[in-house]
Amino acid sequence: MNKILCASVAVLLLASCAKSYHVTGSTSVSALDGSKLYLKAVKAGELKNIDSCDVVHGEFHFAGLLDTVRMVNLFMDDESIMPVILEEGEITMKISAAGPTVGGTPLNDSLYSFIDKHNQLTNQMNELGHRQNQMILEGVDEQTISEQLNTEAARITAEEDELVTKFIEENFDNALGPGVFMLMTSQYRYPVLTPQIEYLMSKATKTFKEDPYVKEYYQMAQENEKRLNGLSETAVPASSAPAPAAATQPAAMTPDMDSLPQPASAPLTNVPQP
Fold this sequence. Notes:
This protein has 274 residues and is α+β, with helices and mostly antiparallel strands. Helix content is 43%, strand content 22%. Helix 2 (106-137) runs antiparallel to helix 3 and helix 3 (142-170) runs antiparallel to helix 4.
């Protein structure tokens, strides 16, 4: 009896010491009410469900044991809504038509401060399209429009590259670095090397390089690069590339007279409209 009692106490103590996550969410988006939400993460190159809950009267809750601190994404069915870092503490989610936010814990506060700055640059790039139309209506010649908007687009793109690169560098050794790297690379149909990625990998710590997603992506990208240069007969097909949690950073488009300027990157969050 004493052995059984001791074993039970030990189990309870272990359970009480186990790390856990708690997410309290609210939404004013009517389309979400009554829906089922999922927390999903990339595991072994596939998107896996971590947790789920229902939205009831504009509120929802997630809770569970925390085996590791990592970035996951909130989904409604197959639609990604927002990234979130699962970590200890009381995580709060708010989803409105103006956009989603996550806070309450250190890494999530840092992530959404970064996202806010990133989306400001996205909005600036979007605004170039309105400026182009306005300049055309004002009778400004095409050459002048092209020169001015090209210069502005290049500035915004450079600021965005610096923002993303610096943020990943500063967070090589926690979940934010690999998480934002995953978001950044989700624009590509298959793993490729870019000057930005090469720079990051040249500066990366061992922790960052050994992250499962980063490691697999970089290995695939190197193999694809060899193939493009005629040094390898095999390459990783797009279908076998790790599945990023959410698309976030399509390449910037330099504005010209044949099409409106496009965002330097898509918003990092996506809220279903009512």
